[in-house]
Design goal:
Length: about 260
């Protein structure tokens, strides 16, 4: 029996600046059913994992290996830093594995215009999924309209190119109230996924935070758990809490635990 976590489904949350109300119907996501189906076969698990290499000292050879593994196991995407986007596009071409790239990473302190330019450049290079970090400092300063505008700007560029946009909240730095507010702002701005963490801050994803984000999102967008997910047990906990995408560098080890060779 999976552990039950409180969600934000019944939390009334309004903001006069943003004109949103989280007490509205956000739809239902069957986390238990999704988790059971995903964990029934390693191919299904691979299809929800972003195979990730974001460390600053990652080499060309390591990026090439990451892409080879993403192709072999058909992960949801190969997630890399922007400098390697051109190389990865070539390696992934025609394989069915999308290229994922981070923007405004890992601090979330870029200008909105910089994020839009970065998103535009990476989409033109072939990126199909963009993971951006929310402006944590602006959120904590109460500058919610500015946070929303920045996210919306990146969303519009991504969607214009047929790409997905995931918003990283860096939940370890936020209060519960800030997590709720940030989630709703990101959804109102059009994000395709709420994502927990960069993996570069004080801690990563927790099942409790995933459940909270899914409680706000309902069926309106996806929830990606990322940061510190290293084993099949870790992935199971996140899926059962409500994640429908996992970000991990230990992806191969996890699918091998489920039977992959």
């Amino acid at each position: 029996m999976p552990t039950q976590f409180p969600t934000a489904q019944q939390v009334r949350y309004t903001d006069p600046e943003m004109d949103f109300d989280s007490d509205s119907d956000s739809g239902y996501f069957d986390a238990a059913g999704f988790a059971a189906d995903t964990l029934s076969d390693w191919h299904k698990l691979a299809a929800v994992i972003d195979h990730t290499l974001l460390k600053p000292d990652a080499t060309r050879t390591q990026v090439e290996n990451l892409c080879d593994e993403a192709i072999r196991y058909q992960f949801a995407c190969a997630m890399i830093n922007p400098v390697w986007a051109g190389l990865a596009t070539q390696l992934l071409s025609g394989t069915g594995v999308p290229l994922g790239v981070v923007i405004g990473f890992p601090l979330g302190a870029s200008l909105g215009s910089t994020l839009r330019h970065e998103a535009e450049s990476l989409c033109r290079l072939g990126a199909k999924e963009l993971d951006m970090v929310i402006s944590v400092g602006q959120l904590k300063s109460g500058e919610h309209a500015a946070v929303e505008r920045t996210i919306r700007g990146a969303v519009e560029v991504a969607h214009d190119h047929g790409a997905l946009l995931k918003v990283i909240l860096e939940t370890c730095l936020l209060t519960v109230e800030e997590k709720l507010r940030a989630s709703e702002i990101a959804i109102q701005a059009g994000t395709d996924f709420l994502k927990t963490s960069t993996g570069f801050s004080t801690s990563g994803a927790t099942p409790g935070d995933v459940a909270l984000l899914r409680g706000v999102a309902g069926a309106r967008c996806g929830v990606k758990a990322s940061g510190g997910i290293r084993t099949l047990a870790d992935a199971r906990a996140m899926l059962e809490a409500g994640a429908n995408r996992i970000g991990a560098s230990a992806s191969v080890a996890m699918v091998r635990e489920l039977g992959a060779e």
